[in-house]
Amino acid sequence: MIARTGPDCRGRTEFHELGEALTLSRIHFRGPLSTVRTDRMAARSSADDVMLFCICRAGQGSVRQHDRFVEMADGTGVLVEARAPYERVSSTEVRTLTLSFPRNLLPLRTAEITEACARSVDSASPTMQVLSAYLGRLFEVADGLTASQRPDAGRAAIELLAMVLRDVTPSVPGGDGPGEVLLEMMRMHIHENLADPQLRVAELARRHHVSVRHAYTAFEQIGTTPGAYLREQRLLTARTMLSDPRYSQLAVSRIAAAVGFRDLSAFERAFRRQYGTTPAGWRREQLSRKSRPR
């Protein structure tokens, strides 16, 4: 993104990792700030499944995405998807809580998620009040949670968010159409069969009784290809396992096999391309950080 600030702008960001590529951030900015993600940036990004749900705790601002414009004030929330261009502006001192997570964690249909973006969530909504209170308290106590408790706390946050978004998502015409249903079935099949080394695009299409071309068309709804989605989910799951102390004694080759990579060198190359480090290097860094006294 491109960030523009005034001459006196100051900011601070704190965050907690909650597992499964899910983070909770607390951000405080003083002074005018605008961030823009252009069409070109969105098209070139590899993080096209990242979603952001921002709760304004103080101040005022605005968000524009999908030709929708929403103003933010104290207590309101807004969903943004990183794969699409957006613009976010604040002209005052602003404090926010932001939940960042992979799109596939949200138990809503693809069209529903897109339609929920850049729509204001009213602070007076009971579900929004519950979510806001939960995220605020979670940020305060996250340091005291164990490595196994953090993912559970993160999943609880996602469930609460889904409850909030169901109240603001408009009816999506054709949302239950065959293309949408096929996409959700294939995504679910991928998540349930990551360890299967035979699972490739052609096999995915065969198991769902469609052509490879039809499978590609289905994944165009979320701006990716079936192969890219499968690879991303395998690497994301592997990264989560490498970060988890419960799997610290499991060889990297076993983790590679657990997410469908037969060849360790192929897994290491793919992991380095995606995350800029080796699986072993990622594990050392994450486990060392988690073992430091707080």
UniProtKB/TrEMBL annotation:
Taxonomy of the source species: Bacteria, Bacillati, Actinomycetota, Actinomycetes, Pseudonocardiales
Keyword Hydrolase: no
Record-linked PROSITE patterns: HTH_ARAC_FAMILY_1 (PS00041), HTH_ARAC_FAMILY_2 (PS01124)
InterPro entries found in the cross-reference section: AraC-bd_2, AraC_XylS_family_regulators, Homeodomain-like_sf, HTH_AraC, HTH_AraC-typ_CS, Tscrpt_reg_AraC-type_HTH
Ranges for domain HTH araC/xylS-type: 184-285
Keywords: DNA-binding, Transcription, Transcription regulation
A Pfam family per the record: HTH_18
Name this polypeptide is given: AraC family transcriptional regulator
Superkingdom of the source species: Bacteria
